[in-house]
What we know:
The structure holds 3 protein chains of 3 kinds.
Chain A (H helix, E strand, L loop, with lengths): L1 H15 L1 H29 L6 H18 L12 H36 L4 H22 L5 E2 L8 E5 L11 E4 H23 L1 H11 L1 H6 L4 H26 L2 E2 L4 H15 L4 H22 L4 H15 L15
Helix pairs in contact in A: 1-11, 2-6, 2-9, 2-10, 2-11, 3-4, 3-5, 3-9, 3-10, 4-5, 4-9, 6-7, 6-9, 7-9, 10-11, 10-12, 11-12
Chain B lengths: L2 E10 L2 E11 L4 E6 L5 H9 L6 E6 L2 E2 L5 H7 L1 E4 L11 H8 L6 H14 L1 H5 L10 H13 L5 E5 L7 H16 L3 E6 L2 H7 L2 E6 L2 E7 H6 L1 H7 L4
Parallel strand pairs in B: 3-8, 3-9, 6-7, 7-8
Antiparallel strand pairs in B: 1-2, 1-4, 4-5, 9-10
Chain C lengths: L2 H32 L2 H17 L21 H24 L8 H15 L11 H23 L4 H21 L9 E2 L26 H23 L1 H11 L1 H6 L4 H27 L1 E2 L6 H14 L4 H17 L7 H15 L8 H17 L4
Antiparallel strand pairs in C: 1-2
Amino acid sequence: MDFFQGMADNFSNLWTIIGDLTVTGLTQGAIYALIALGYTLVYGVLQLINFAHSEVFLVGAFGSVMVWGWLGYSSGAAAVPPLLVVIGMLLLGAVTASIFSGGTALIIERVAYRPLRRKNAPRLIFLITAIGASVAISEIVGLLVDRKVVSTPALVHQKFQVWFDPSDIGLNINSFGITNLQIGIVLCAIGMWLALDLFLNRTKFGLGIRSVAQDEDTAALMGVNKDRVIMLTFLLGGLAAGVAAVLYNLKFPQITFDMGFLLGIKAFTAAVLGGIGNLRGALVGGLVLGLVENWGAGFFGNDWMNVTAFVVLVVVLMFRPTGILGDSLGKARA
Amino acid sequence: MLLEIEDLNVHYGRIQALHGISLTVDEGEIVALIGANGAGKSTTMRAISGLRRASAGRILFGGDDITRMRADRRVVAGISQAPEGRGIFPGMTVLENLTMGAYTRKDKAAVAADQQRVFELFPRLAERRKQPGGTLSGGEQQMLAIGRALMSRPKLMLLDEPSMGLAPMLIRQIFDIILEIREQGTTILLVEQNAQQALSRADRAYVLETGAITRSGSGSDLLVDPAVRDAYLGVA
Amino acid sequence: MTLTDKLRTAGQKIRTADEKRASFIQGARGRWHDLPKAWRIAAALAGVVVLFALPNLYIPGIPFRTDEVDGGNSFGFVLSTIAIYVLVAIGLNVVIGMAGLLDLGYIGFYAVGAYSVALFGSPQSIVATKFPWLICVPIAIALAMVSGVILGTPTLRLRGDYLAIVTLGFGEIVRLIAVNAEFTNGTSGLGGMPTPPGTWPAGTELEGTKLFSVNDSRPFYWLTLVLIFAVIFGVKQLERSRVGRSWLALREDEDAASLMGVATFQFKLWAFAIGAGIGGLSGAMFASRNGHFGSNSITLLLSIMFVAAVVLGGQGNILGVTVGTVLAFYLPERFRSFADKRDLIFGLALILIMVLRPQGLLPSRRRARELADRRQEAKEATIVG
């Protein structure tokens, strides 16, 4: 009976804090989703798991913190700057991070993948060079910051915009709030997805990407330059990762040179969960993973949060490798 | 000469698929390439459009050597292809497939006009313009492949088995349209297993056997050539 | 000269040097086979003797020993670590090189082996059965194999790169359980591991004291060498058997193999289980050598390093994977001044070597041919640049 009592206690614990867990989960999930977009884009076009994508995110995160620091906005700053400055800094951070991330993504493509594509190397070899690139990039960042933890500046004054008290309507749930930053992060993820979706479906470059994803040979017969399309795909993934990096910097007080690995695996899990190769899947997968992970932490305890994420990955791949929404960037693949 | 192929060799691993093929296509012609399955017809087409590399020999287009030009550049140079198996993008609508055909062009107004022209040529496609390419019937896909190949305003159009898998009435219709396309000024090189149709509509033709050209001549001459009749026309 | 030109010439030079090296190896292989059999046996025996003598070997003027470097670890310790990792690589080679299954979470099996010894042998464990070493090791191998089957049954139907990620997830789950569960005691881990039986023989310096102890790692190195030879022998037999031929068929073309009636799933599972068993054995050796095992010893980077070492050396070829592993783990110990840049150098080397030689440094001949065919195919197929 102890076991069942324990489970019931865990559950009631989860239930009382479910409001907070849900909000946190969606916020984290939005960041996973933004990184997942990069995995999904590259996979959709090349059927390649870009294992080094986590470092694309990492470089963006450090790049933007560095530029903010040059302008005097480091973690030491006492007060939150005035609104106009904040907006300027956020835009600047987004641009910087996108340049850093996009550039990293292009370098990875050029150095670690393109020579192998020329040789028609087996998939396994791509994964190995990707691992090499991932290790090398995070080590370069590590050497540059002496492997120290880097604090991010508190640019946004986080305040509660909305406050809920479910006990008002008779539910036994603790009251919880949603901050401006949390709303902003989720909106950014949705916005990025919309922008990418429009780009893919409404522009000529988007059409080019879709054509290579669906049929490389015929795409070449239409005059599509495959190398250019692949570069563009990596660049787009890099831009999304750059946005994710800025949001991460705003949400979390510290970044480390080796944080890419875990985030990368989770974002990849999100992409698979939603259906890899499918943009909407990346968004849905990210949010669902964030929720499951945080609810899991509420139920089993914080120590088990990451285990929940990996169990989700294994279970999804075992029972529904095409994910929640299936894949759709290319043609349906079994 | 619009297209000149000199002594073209193509290999697949250790297997040689083409053994020194030479052929020419003059501006305004319809030239047919006939032969049995595996004779190397599609390989020839892929070598011309740049999907397969030549291991030896030269391909000249409008006098320029394009042997080592990338496939996508050849589209800009003026070659387009309706490939074997049609190559319709299954996840794109009919309209998007046609837009893909004009991928290299920047003159938007003229592209829209050409699109209109394709819809006039193939009214079926106009009815289905919003439908995904993967849901079209075989005949509709063939029309779309030809229409799409027209969209780049090619000087030379390569058609790989346009009659494959179609009903006889539809085959006649497709060949009528091919003639019409030529009338409008596009040169055509087509590959066919349906030798009867191909030879009766083409100005000239080449017969391909196990990777080499064994016969050539005007379409009407080959139609009455006893060896050709024996091998490809199914009449004794 | 512009930068691109310089890079191009540099690349060209590296390529020529690499081709020279490859043809040298090819030549060496030929010459080796041309030698009379008696010579070959004598040379092999001499090699084995050198391997066993290695921990006590000093060569004046050639400071190959790690304890000759500032702050270096005891050479016996380093050698035993490398030997254990070579054992890991040989097991991983069964999974990757022979059956063609990419397992990124192989360290999971290694951990299962190590914790089995800890759990059943250590007086600090909650089970506290305090089994002797000779009983713990078979248990470790068996549990690792069982976990291989448990992981393999649902996942081996997945396509290659998906399998890679699931196994990575599995490795991470094992690690997190080790960190968080009570029975593993987290980062503090469990101590007092059982050791193999035996005492130093008469006439040696330490006569009468326990042969295997944390004070001297050399006996562990010798024992691991013996295990390596035994495992290589077993794996070679396996490779020549029906199972080995099925793996080959499966690796080259799974669909064709399955059409020809190879029970693909069953043979994949075998590869996974056998690989896992060898991984468990290595983990058990590692835990008893250290006398202690905690969750710090399991990192996914280590797991990935194993895979990289196998592919780097030349998957499918036991000599190749051994060389790859020795290089990957010996060089950073020997050149400690680079220690903080070792992962960086490792990452860059990984890209460079894979781009130049996807088949690895010392590939199996069959693998090299497969890759050359693919490269040729790529050359014929498309026009690039």
